[in-house]
Structure formats: C-alpha cells, structure tokens
C-alpha cells in the first residue's frame, strides 16, 4: 500500500453523538510509521520503512501531510449529518440552556458561545468563534476525536470555560491542507480556560498560532501530550500550565503539504510551566524522514519539568534552538543520534541538569546566565561568559567539550577532594576540552574543597610537579597559562594555600591525561603553594652559562654542572604557604602591645616638666592634651621556615586628661588624675604568602598617681584598660577577611631623680617597669578559618638617663638614652578549620631588646600654661626587634 493509497482510503463511520471516526488500518497495510496523535491524523499504524519506501521520501512528505489534512477534512461532512451547520456569512449565538449539539461553521461564519453555553464538537473553516465561560466536550470515540477544530484561516477567542475531548484532541489549530492554494494559518487565543484531551490537550499545525494566558492544557491519557506543535507557534503566558501523561509538549517535524512555506515549530514558555508526568517536559520528534528545526524559548520565570528528569529531549534528525532567559530549567537536555541542539542561557537564564546523548549540542552562557551540571555532560562547543558549576551531590562529574572553549569573564565551580592527589588517586570534577581554548579567554575557577587538606608535594621537593596535585582542567589543543585562574588567587584548606599550576606543551605528563587518547597539551593542576624567603628577589644561577666562556675550566677538573651555587652560599629556602591573612593575625598581639607601650610611655611624655608648675594654693588642678605618632619596623626573631614575619606599624593617638594636685610643706606634691585616649594603628606584614593589611581602632582609659618629693625624687604609677577592634584585608580577598577584637589592661611604675651637674644642667636617672595583658576574642574568618589567640602578656623594663638644662623655663631642652628589655614569653596562635578537621599552631614572635635616644623640650609660656614635646629614635639590639621613630606633643594648663 503506497502513501498515495493511504491518503485516499479513509473511511468514516457515524456514531450516535454525531462525531466522525477514522478507522485505524493494521500495520500490514501501511508503508511507514505514522506518528501517534497526528492532528486529524493519518489513520495508518505504519510498519518499518522498506528500502523501496526510502527512495520515495520526497513523496512521503507530501502524502503524509495530505493524509493528515484529508483526515481533518473528513470530519466536517460527518458533522453535517448530525450537526448544526452555519452557512457562509451566517452568525449564531449559543446561550445557556440551548440544545447541546455539534457545530460546523464555514465561509466567514461566526459562532458565539455565551456564558453557560454547552456544545459537542465544533469545526471551524475560515470562520470565527467567540466563547466565554462555555463548555465544548466530546466523549467516547477514538484518539483522533476533535473537540474544537480551528482550521484554514479561522480565528477562535476562548475566555474561561472548558474544552475537552475524552479520547482525542481538545483543541486543534491548523490550516485545512488539501489542494494547492487552500491552506491558510489559523489562530486561537485562550485565557483562563481548561483544555484537555486523552491524546493531546491541544495541537498546532500548518502555521497556526495558539496563545494562552493563565490557561490549563492537559493530555489526560497515560500516553497523552499536553500540547503538540507540528508547524506553527504556541505561546504560553501568565501562568499557563501544560501537562501530559508522557510529554508536556511535543514539537513534531512535518511538512504541512499546503501552499504556505513551513514556518517552523516554535514553543514560547513565558512565565508558564510545561510538565511531562512520565517523560520529558518537551520532546522534539520527526514525523517523516527529513531534518527539521524547532525553537524553544523559556522566559520570565518559565519552567520545564520532566517526570523522567529530562527537560528537553531532541529526537533523531531534529534540530532544536533553545533559549532560556530570566528562568530556571531544572532537568536534563538529551540529543539522540543525528540530532542537534543549540542552547543559549541568556540574561539570568539557568539550566540545572546534564547534557547527554549521541547528538551534538552547543552551549552558550551569557554573562548573567548559569549552568549547574548534575551529571557528566558533553557539548560540541562551549561559550562561557557566565557561570558553570558542578552540583555538590553525588559522584564527581566531568564536562567534555568536543570542540572549542571560548568566552570572556566566565566562572566555573568545581568540587574537589583535597587529598595528596598525584598518582595515588584524584577525586574532583573536571573540565576536559578536546579542542582549543580561546587565546583571549580568562575563566575564574572556584573550588569547593573537602577532605583533609593533605600535602600534594608527594616527593617533598618543594614544588608541584606535572604528576602531583589534582588535575582540574585538561586541554587537548592550544591554550595559555592564564586561561584559568583561581578566584581570590588560592583555595584555603585550613591555614594552607592551594593554587592552580598550569603545565603547557612539553611540560604535561601524558600518563595523567583524562582526554581519552590523542593530543594533550595543557594541564591545570591544584596543589600546595610554595614560597621562598627571597620572595621576588630569587634569581637562580643561569644553568646555560655557569663558566666564563673566555677562560674555560680545565677539562681535567670540570665544574660540576649539577651544583652551580657556590659552596657555603645557601640557596633559597621554600615552605608551604599559609593563607595571606594569617601573618596579620599572628602579629596582632605584638602590634597591639606596641600601641599600649606607646600610650604608657612615661611621666615626662604625659605631663611635661612638673617641677616648675605654680599653683598659688595648697590644692590645685590641671588638664592636659597630647598627640602621639609613631612609625615602627619590626625584624622577625622566627625563621622563615617557622613562619616568622617582618612588619611595619604606624600609630596615631590622642590622649586627654586632668588631675588634682596637693602641695605639702616641703614643696613636695602628690597628684592624681585620669586620662582618656583614642587612636588607630595600621600593621602591614612583609609576607611571601601574600599581602595583608590590618587596621585597628583603640579606646582606653587610665588613672594615675604621681608623688614628687621636695628633693626632686618622683614616683609615677599608671593603671589603664583598653579595647581594640580591627579588620584584616588582603589583596586577593579584599576587605573584612577577618575581624579581631581584644581587650586588656596596662600598668606602669616609673621612678626618677634629677641630680645637679652644675651650670644649670641636671642628670636624671630613670627606671620604668610596664606590664600589659591582652585577651583576644576567638573568631572565624572569610575562609572559614577559626582563629584563637587567647591571652598575651608582655613585660617591659626601661633604664634611662636624661640630661637637661632647666635655667630658663621658657625653653628647657633635654636628651635621653634608654635601654629597653621586653619579654612576652612564647605566644602562639591556633588556626583550625571545622570543615577540614585540620589545623596548626604558630608562634607569634618576640619584641626583644632595643636602645632609644630622645630629644625634647618644655616651654613654660605662662605660670599656668606649658608646652612640651619629644622625638625619639629606637633600634633593636641583636638580630630582631623594633626600630623606628615616635613623636609626642602636648599642652598642660594648671589652675
């Protein structure tokens, strides 16, 4: 039986409800597979294609469509026997309570259904239907029953109500088909209505258009499809819900067989949902053996839900263009053999699923688009301007790019087990590019790590080799070193840094290839970062020219080429890098205690010269204010291998206070007072691990008591409390990486006695003892690092000698030499990670000893106003400690 015969041998049988039925021929009578649910469809159930039939495919295309069209046309005469017919140009209104019957409307006729009206099947040909809150139903019959047929240029407007075919198709929007020149697209607009059919909820063919708003379309049968688009456009808007027993929607490739060129198949899911209960949300299929295109757009909160986990299933010989914008598609995309798809995740378009199958899928991800891979995926090409990430759940996954990888500013997230890696076993998500990486691309890599944070330098040679670490990205073709860079520059596993190491052509280890054979040019591997104590000043000896070529070495005693470094001259020492912020944390106790020492410096720095003050009464008072500035540099006492760090520190503070003075009969005095201070200190470590910066704010208060004997002997005691709060930033992570809080107390006892030298000069021996304790609050930083500094105690002893001239109180200069000894025990920092179940303890260093020279002056401007100031320079004694300058300027008023 030929296609021509198939198209001409339909028979219809009348039924009591007036509906037409198409007899289904057995498979032995039909030449090739006819798609189920063909709108108006070919009644043949076709068997496997024979070689003879394959040679007649062009004829099949016309005859299959003709079969489709004739089947739909045959429904009209069947209605004429048991239906109300509107002749060309006639109009009629069906009201609630009118007889329930079939309707055939032709030749620009118009049928109106008022609210509450009910009908059986309606067939429109070049006519108009306007239905509001009405019911159109057919019951019984076969899967080819049509409740509402909108054909050959007809227009239907449906608002509310119900359209239902118990066994067949609820709504069919199509051209009439048939002879040349007789095919015109039709359209239907559906708002707030429920459409259902046992076979298809709705179908669109022959260039028709269906537009819905807040509607519900259902293929109720177990093999039903919500909506089928053979040729035309279905636009689902404003919360429309489409569902089917198998697929929610099917885009069906077919030539329409009329005079209008094939407009393609378009499904637009605009703020609506398409759901397949047991199959894919959207299936793309062909009805005749020919390549056919389909277009699927999911926009403005649209959703595709596949009961089998597949959002879009593209069948053989079909091509689908898929666009997603402002929507999330949750489900896989599959492409069968000889199928292809082009997927674009546009503005805020997200795909959560995998791409698989034997077909070819190209993927483009715009700047605000994203793809979360839930399983191994393969794409023909990938343009990544947005984000691609591997889902956390389940096994580690691989993204294979058969062709080229392009994009600008894209981002990828990998899940990785940070074990030793190398040849012992690697467990990570991977990107495998079998083509080239665009020369202008730069993709930011984020790693979500798990594991114990093991050392990846398995041979302990202080570097990451090409078979060490964990391979995240491999490229068969061309690429470049900075094509992939870590977000923030590193991955933190507890206190340790892991960085991405790129191995290029001639550097890769072929045994590490995951590309399945063939070329292997680039390998980007995650491993521990190593740093050297010479930092950027490391200059290895040139291995090409170790010996002066003008005066070659005697060949009898050649220079050993394996050891170009001179004997006794050690090379750079390497160690594993810590996260960049850790040096700032480690130096916090010492830096904040430096601040405390600066604010409790001494009597002369706080009040100036107190021997020349005039009160005029036995009891007086005084107020003072002073500004303090300091710039210090610290040289470490711990080695580079023990994570010792130099640092720079700047201190700026303002202190104000006052007191009460009582004068005794011996012209001695006792004074008691208070002081408040506010200041900042900035600390910048010098660390090969990376740049970090800390800024602290300090607020303190103190009380003091000073006794001065008439002989000049004086004793000064100070007790204070202070709070610190500060933030640590790094170049790689930005601001607020860690926030430190500390509080503590300080105390100082100082004694001195001026002795005359003659000629208005005096010498004053001084001794001062200071102690302070800081209690740091535990905290967790941006890298998930738990920091515990605990309590830090420091004691300082100062022995000084001051020489001054006091004959002229208007300007009394002095100079001083101090020897300072500081002890702060063996302070430590604990850095750990709950997520990693790992951590370590680090020493924080000692301040050491120093000498200091000072020069200053006081000026008694009036009997009650005194200006005073001092500048100092100190330098450590030995190999470590503090050096730098400080200055103090103040004014005191007595009354």
TrEMBL record:
Kindly give the Pfam families that the UniProt entry links to this protein. Answer: AC_1, Autotransporter
Q: List the taxonomic lineage.
A: Bacteria, Pseudomonadati, Pseudomonadota, Gammaproteobacteria, Lysobacterales
Domain of life (superkingdom): Bacteria
Xref: SUPFAM superfamilies: Autotransporter (SSF103515), Pectin lyase-like (SSF51126)
Q: In the UniProt record, which is one GO cellular component term?
A: outer membrane
Annotated segments matching region Disordered: 175-207
Which stretches make up the Autotransporter domain?
616-895
**Compositionally biased tracts (Gly residues):** 198-207
In terms of InterPro entries, this protein maps to: AC_1, Autotransporte_beta, Autotransporte_beta_dom_sf, Autotransporter_pectin_lyase_C, OM_autotransptr_brl_dom, Pectin_lyase_fold/virulence
Supply the name of the protein: Autotransporter outer membrane beta-barrel domain-containing protein
């Amino acid at each position: 039986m030929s296609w021509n015969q198939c198209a001409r041998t339909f028979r219809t049988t009348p039924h009591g409800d007036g509906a037409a039925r198409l007899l289904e021929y057995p498979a032995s009578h039909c030449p090739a597979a006819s798609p189920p649910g063909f709108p108006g469809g070919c009644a043949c159930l076709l068997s496997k294609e024979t070689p003879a039939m394959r040679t007649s495919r062009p004829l099949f295309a016309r005859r299959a469509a003709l079969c489709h069209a004739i089947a739909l046309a045959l429904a009209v005469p069947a209605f004429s026997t048991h239906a109300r017919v509107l002749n060309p140009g006639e109009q009629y209104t069906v009201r609630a309570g009118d007889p329930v019957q079939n309707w055939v409307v032709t030749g620009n006729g118009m049928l109106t259904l008022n609210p509450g009206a009910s009908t059986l099947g309606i067939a429109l040909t070049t006519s108009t239907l306007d239905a509001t809150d009405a019911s159109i139903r057919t019951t019984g019959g076969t899967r080819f029953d049509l409740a509402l047929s909108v054909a050959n240029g007809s227009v239907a407007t449906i608002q509310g109500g119900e359209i239902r075919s118990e066994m067949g198709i609820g709504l069919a929007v199509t051209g009439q088909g048939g002879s040349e020149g007789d095919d015109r697209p039709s359209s239907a607009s559906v708002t707030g209505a429920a459409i259902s059919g046992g076979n298809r909820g709705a179908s669109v063919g022959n260039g028709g258009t269906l537009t819905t708003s807040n509607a519900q379309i259902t293929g109720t049968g177990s093999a039903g499809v919500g909506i089928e688009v053979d040729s035309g456009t279905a636009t689902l808007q404003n919360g429309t819900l489409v569902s089917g027993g198998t697929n929610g929607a099917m885009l069906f490739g077919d030539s329409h067989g009329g005079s209008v060129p094939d407009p393609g198949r378009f499904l637009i899911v605009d703020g609506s949902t398409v759901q397949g209960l047991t199959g894919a949300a959207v299936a793309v299929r062909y009805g005749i053996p020919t390549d056919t295109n389909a277009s699927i757009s999911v926009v403005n909160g649209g959703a595709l839900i596949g009961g089998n986990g597949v959002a879009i299933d593209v069948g053989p010989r079909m091509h689908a263009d898929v666009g997603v914008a402002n929507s999330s598609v949750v489900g896989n995309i599959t492409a069968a053999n000889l199928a292809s798809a082009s997927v674009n995740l546009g503005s805020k378009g997200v795909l959560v699923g995998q791409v698989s199958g034997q077909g070819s899928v190209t993927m483009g991800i715009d700047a605000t688009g994203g793809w979360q891979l839930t399983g191994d995926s393969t794409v023909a090409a990938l343009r990544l301007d947005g984000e691609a990430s591997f889902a956390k759940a389940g096994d580690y996954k691989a993204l294979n790019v058969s062709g080229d990888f392009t994009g600008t500013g894209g981002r990828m997230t990998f899940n990785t087990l940070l074990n030793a890696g190398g040849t012992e076993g690697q467990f990570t998500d991977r990107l495998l590019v079998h083509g080239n990486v665009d020369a202008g691309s730069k993709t930011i890599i984020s790693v979500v790590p798990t594991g114990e944070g093991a050392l990846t330098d398995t041979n302990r040679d202080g570097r990451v080799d090409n078979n060490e670490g964990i391979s995240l990205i491999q490229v068969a073709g061309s690429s470049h070193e900075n094509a992939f860079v870590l977000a923030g520059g590193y991955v933190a596993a507890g206190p340790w840094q892991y960085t991405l190491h790129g191995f290029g052509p001639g550097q890769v280890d072929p045994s590490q290839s995951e590309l399945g054979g063939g070329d292997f040019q680039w390998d980007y591997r995650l491993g521990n970062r190593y740093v050297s104590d010479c930092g950027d000043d490391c200059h290895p000896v040139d291995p090409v020219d170790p010996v002066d070529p003008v005066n070659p070495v005697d060949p009898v005693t050649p220079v050993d080429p394996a050891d170009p470094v001179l004997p006794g001259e050690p090379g750079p020492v390497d160690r594993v890098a810590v996260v960049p912020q850790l040096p700032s944390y480690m130096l916090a106790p010492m830096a904040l205690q430096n601040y405390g020492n600066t604010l409790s410096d001494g009597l002369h720095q706080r009040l100036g010269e107190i021997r020349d003050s005039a009160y005029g009464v036995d009891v007086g008072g005084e107020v003072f204010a002073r500004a303090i500035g300091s710039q210090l540099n610290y040289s470490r006492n711990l080695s580079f291998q023990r994570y010792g760090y130099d640092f720079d520190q700047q201190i700026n503070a303002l202190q104000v206070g006052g007191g009460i003075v009582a004068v005794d009969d011996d012209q001695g005095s006792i004074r008691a007072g208070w002081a408040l201070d506010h200041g900042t200190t900035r600390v910048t470590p010098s660390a090969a691990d990376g740049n970090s910066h800390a800024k602290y704010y300090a607020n303190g208060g103190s009380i003091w008591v000073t006794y001065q004997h008439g002989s000049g002997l004086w004793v000064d005691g100070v007790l204070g409390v202070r709070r610190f709060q500060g933030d640590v930033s790094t170049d790689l992570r930005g601001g607020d990486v860690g926030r430190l809080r500390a509080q503590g107390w300080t105390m100082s006892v100082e004694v001195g006695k001026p002795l005359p030298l003659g000629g208005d000069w005096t010498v004053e021996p001084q001794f001062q003892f200071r102690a302070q304790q800081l209690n740091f609050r535990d905290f967790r930083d941006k890298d998930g690092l738990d920091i515990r500094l605990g309590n830090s105690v420091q004691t300082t002893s100062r022995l000084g000698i001051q020489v001054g001239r006091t004959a002229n109180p208007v300007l009394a200069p002095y100079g001083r030499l101090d020897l300072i000894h500081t002890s702060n025990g063996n302070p430590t920092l604990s850095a750990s990670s709950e997520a990693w179940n790992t951590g370590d303890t680090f020493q924080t260093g000692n301040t050491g000893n120093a000498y200091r020279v000072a020069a200053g002056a006081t000026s008694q401007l009036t009997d009650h106003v005194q200006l005073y100031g001092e500048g100092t320079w100190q330098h450590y004694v030995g190999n470590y400690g503090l050096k730098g300058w400080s200055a103090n300027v103040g004014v005191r008023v007595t009354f």
